[in-house]
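Need the bound structure for magnesium ion, inputs here:
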Amino acid sequence: MAAEDFTPGLNFIRTIIEADIKAGKNGGRVHTRFPPEPNGYLHIGHAKSICLNFGLAAEYRGLCNLRFDDTNPGKEDVEYVDSIMADVGWLGFDWQDRLYYASDYFEQLYEFALHLIRSGKAYVCALTAGQIREFRGTLTEPGQNSPCRERSTAESLDLFQRMRAGEFPDGSYVLRAKIDMASPNLNMRDPVLYRIRRESHHRTGDRWCIYPMYDYTHPISDALEGITHSLCTLEFEDHRPFYDWALDQLPVPCHPQQIEFARLNLSYTVMSKRKLLELVDKAYVRGWDDPRLPTLTGLRRRGYTPEAIRNFAEIVGVAKRESMVDMALLEHCLREDLNKRAKRVMAVLRPLKVVISNYPENQVEELDAENNPEDPGMGTRKLPFSREIYIEQDDFREDPPKKFFRLSPGKEIRLKHAYYIRCVDVIKDTQSGEIKELHCTYDPESRGGWTQDGRKVLGTSHWVSAAQALDVEVRLYDKLLSVANPAGEKEEKDFMEYLNPASLEIVKNCKVEPSLVAAAPGDRFQFLRQGYFCVDLDSTSEMPVFNRAVTLRDSWAKIEKSQQVK
Ligand code: ATP
Ligand code: MG
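Answer from helper R.:
Posting the output first, comments after.
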């Protein structure tokens, strides 16, 4: 990404809006909309559009509508409608009483279609879909007129009304705009406005057997709602002439301005709803809310906060040029947010038992631990400490390499918030040779993790007291795809070929400190040295489950630093 994309504040859309306000256009009003098609769950790309539309409206004291673009009954469903509303609300935006459905305009859209026919701007065409494509021409060759193009107004009116009445089979007729088959813009070569489809609609049921096309529905819906700035992604740039054409032909209350911006692409993942649906349908993931997916419901389950996503949307900004945003930036935004508010706790993912031989048996003491060094206001909690604890297997090496700043035979480390311990013995399974436990001694003078003599230790480890620890399951996630951009690979294969087989690792029998006993699904914590974790929906009191939302290593900060050096 180039630096220009990082300038928060001004962008080309704000520049347009501010000029419009200054010029008194639309009476100075700003009214946007977020228009999802309810044919899948929302993803992080949609979040960019939501933040942009609702964000601009808030910024300019305007309004933003939520409108379902539900003109494609075969693929749409109330499940998606409900999830979209939940996700927009979760992101922190409120459409108040402005919830709309394009299907609410079906009658009006039909009336407008009659208007177009009457004014000689539309005709009923009997060409098949294949023929229409053939007649359309190419980018270098003009199209040919349909033999139906000169059908009389009266005949088109009659046929169109009978299309609605259900007199003709699916695919037998379409209504087309009459524009220009020689236009250099293919979208202006008599585009289809209506097709016959006997499909039940999730809102209008079987009331209609003709459905309007998206390109026809969208400008009219915008105009009927008094939208001033209709923001959409770049692929609609070539559709703008038709957007304007439709509004120019019809007695609509206003003429919104379509403005295009580059869609968000994110590395190592897929964003198209078709691909997401394929992953869900073929059960490569556990559902739309699988924490590996970039869906909002997946990100939420994984532990993302609305604040992190809104901040991400602001940082990526809007541009006129397609680009690929590094997943590391999204992760960076989550860390920034959770660093401020996640409670620090101790969790040992791969436990190694340590017996502190000089600590009194049956003694349990309570040590003070700060909840968040970034925010003393978050207070402290008590941590039980006893003779038997667990540390991370990785925090011990029998034969440490140079610069191994953790525990090894004869060496001393600090246990966070607790004591200095020194390893005096390594107990192994006599058969397998596997390390079963360590025997250590502790320095009673080092309570809290500090000594009077200021003696240095190799490092600091997290730990949990064995008797009080809770057993939990931890789910570690990695990138969904093994390559950043499948389209950029030498030999482009289907995206399924790039699925990372190690995107999920389930670790059982992890040990966490007892303060987590009350953690509920959605609660987020920093497991010291391990990352930020969120209690999963599958969690029960018998078996708590934690998702790792993100590790602590901030590769984005590194990338940023190296760019500053240049
Ligand atoms: P997809 O291509 O992922 O299936 P879509 O564009 O068909 O998505 P819609 O439901 O039509 O999905 O999108 C609703 C709004 O969100 C549109 O205005 C669209 O431009 C915007 N949007 C969709 N994907 C992105 C993205 N990756 N970045 C920014 N905006 C997006
Ligand atoms: Mg779409």
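Comments: The first strand starts at residue 31 and ends at 34. Confidence is low (pLDDT under 50) at residues 1-7.
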